[in-house]
């Protein structure tokens, strides 16, 4: 079985996807990390605003992922970039790179390849709608804008980034807008996705809700 989890930034996808994968003994795949890795490459090469060169660069990058149920490491041309792809700069730039159709094609093919064995929880923005429209189960997580910004703010502080609360709120708003309004594979729930609002719920509570929906099909 392949389980798709989509939703906006800060909805709790990564935490919940890891917990769910460990409860089921499944693998876990964070697909945002693939877009982040290509964005890091574009930033390093100063190509963020040069669409054609960026597409060319993206097709020449070797991205590998090692993942278990609760940990994923990402390598860009052999270099471990797991931490480097989490900076606020990369977070902001990623939705610009992710709206380029050729980049999406590359990443979509990679995700399908990684998910083909099944027994996997895959999280992102377009997994249930575009990447794995035939996934056996689909969830769409949401939460209020303030709560999502709060989660990212706490995470950024833990990582030592000095982002003000206003900047954090704005960053999430901008990403929401960019991810939902792009022409290719915009963020939206699949018609057959189960929608879970995580605003006032702990990750464990969300996982319990999901497990109840999965009962009988495991
Ligand atoms: O999930 P995460 O915040 O790491 O994703 C970073 C960005 O990657 C998102 O804001 C979105 O622009 C892009 N993304 C995407 N499709 C996915 C996963 C992520 O467009 N399946």
From TrEMBL:
<protein>
    <recommendedName>
        <fullName>Cytidylate kinase</fullName>
        <ecNumber>2.7.4.25</ecNumber>
    </recommendedName>
</protein>
<feature type="domain" description="Cytidylate kinase">
    <location>
        <begin position="3"/>
        <end position="214"/>
    </location>
</feature>
<dbReference type="Pfam" id="PF02224">
    <property type="entry name" value="Cytidylate_kin"/>
</dbReference>
<keyword id="KW-0963">Cytoplasm</keyword>
<dbReference type="InterPro" id="IPR027417">
    <property type="entry name" value="P-loop_NTPase"/>
</dbReference>
<keyword id="KW-0547">Nucleotide-binding</keyword>
<comment type="similarity">
    <text>Belongs to the cytidylate kinase family. Type 1 subfamily.</text>
</comment>
<dbReference type="GO" id="GO:0015949">
    <property type="term" value="P:nucleobase-containing small molecule interconversion"/>
</dbReference>
<feature type="binding site">
    <location>
        <begin position="7"/>
        <end position="15"/>
    </location>
    <ligand>
        <name>ATP</name>
    </ligand>
</feature>
<keyword id="KW-0067">ATP-binding</keyword>
<dbReference type="GO" id="GO:0036430">
    <property type="term" value="F:CMP kinase activity"/>
</dbReference>
<dbReference type="InterPro" id="IPR003136">
    <property type="entry name" value="Cytidylate_kin"/>
</dbReference>
<dbReference type="GO" id="GO:0005524">
    <property type="term" value="F:ATP binding"/>
</dbReference>
<dbReference type="InterPro" id="IPR011994">
    <property type="entry name" value="Cytidylate_kinase_dom"/>
</dbReference>
<keyword id="KW-0418">Kinase</keyword>
<dbReference type="GO" id="GO:0036431">
    <property type="term" value="F:dCMP kinase activity"/>
</dbReference>
<dbReference type="GO" id="GO:0006220">
    <property type="term" value="P:pyrimidine nucleotide metabolic process"/>
</dbReference>
<dbReference type="GO" id="GO:0005829">
    <property type="term" value="C:cytosol"/>
</dbReference>
<keyword id="KW-0808">Transferase</keyword>
